[in-house]
Specification:
This protein is mostly helical and 306 residues long. Helix content is 75%, strand content 0%.
């Protein structure tokens, strides 16, 4: 992967891919919150991921038939898939307790977990420990989260606390997933890796749904709800990942990661219209503090040359 190709001049394709990933991932929380009124989290999860898996399946089968598929992918994808199953379960569940923008803001703490785990797993990134930028970013992230929670008017409500805990644990699992996927697919096509992860994730989510969910709810869905399942799966899971990977392959990981930091505010703009969600002024200020801290942490990693 030539991560830094065209990094010093404007790349229209990469820019379009970045904006596309941002827009599609900003729609995901809205769809999940909408479907929460009709499906439990377990059933919704397996339906959406199954549709995304079916979208990717022809590409995977073609790659296998053409001899372009690395058979090691089946084994290497096991650990990232296991963490993805847990992360996706938590991600969907949180929206049943808290609103989309608030949830999305909290999960941006995954940047810190990714950096911390990278320090442990990748010797070349241990210089982060000596990076003043990284520690400033970490402090701003912690300050931002603390402020967002402190100024949440109904923070003491049982449902809100449950949602906050789920969101923060989800961020941790997101960090583990990112690092394990990076290790597993270091020399394997990331598209093949994600295709296999989709298959394993559907199996895991299917087991959870069979035990904890209620597939009988599917019979009560109308055309609008089924459309939401299919459209959100293709746009927010399958295509969003394609755009993000395409951007990273052309201009590296740093700029796409920074662009995606705008997601909480994009989600808020949509959620305010659809669900009348609002954040008060102090929450917006501390939310911006959290995202600035995350951006500085990403900048610190990039400064190491990784």
């Amino acid at each position: 992967m030539n991560e830094h190709r065209n990094s010093r001049r404007f790349d229209l394709t990469a820019t379009t891919a970045c904006v596309g990933a941002l827009c599609l991932w900003s729609l995901g929380p809205i769809f999940i919150k909408y479907l929460a009124a009709y499906l439990d989290a377990w059933t919704q999860n397996v339906l959406r991921y199954s549709a995304a898996c079916l979208f990717w399946l022809p590409f995977l089968l073609y790659s296998i038939h053409a001899g372009r598929f690395d058979k090691r992918t089946w084994r290497r994808a096991l650990l990232p898939a296991a963490t993805n199953i847990i992360m996706q379960s938590l991600w969907a569940a949180a929206f049943y307790y808290i609103n989309p923008a608030f949830m999305t803001l909290l999960t941006k703490t995954n940047i810190i977990w990714i950096a911390a785990l990278s320090v442990v797993m990748f010797p070349e990134e241990r210089a982060l420990i000596r990076s003043r930028r990284f520690w400033i970013g970490l402090l701003l992230c912690i300050t931002g989260v603390a402020g967002i929670l402190y100024f949440k008017s109904d923070f003491a409500a049982h449902g809100t606390i449950t949602g906050v805990v789920i969101a923060l644990v989800c961020a941790l699992m997101w960090g583990i997933y990112t690092v394990t996927a990076r290790i597993a697919f270091r020399d394997i096509d990331s598209r093949h890796g994600f295709s296999v992860i989709c298959i394993y994730t559907v199996i895991g989510l299917g087991i959870f749904a069979a035990v904890f969910g209620d597939f009988g709810q599917c019979a009560e869905l109308g055309a609008a709800q089924w459309a939401a399942v299919g459209v959100s799966a293709v746009l927010c899971i399958a295509l969003a990942h394609v755009f993000y990977y395409a951007a990273m392959r052309r201009i590296g990981a740093t700029i796409p990661a920074l662009v995606i930091l705008a997601q909480p505010f994009a989600v808020l703009a949509i959620s305010r219209t659809v669900f009348a969600e609002t954040l008060n002024i102090p929450q917006l200020i501390f939310g911006a503090t959290l995202l600035i801290g995350a951006a500085i942490a990403i900048w610190a990693q990039e400064h190491l040359g990784n």
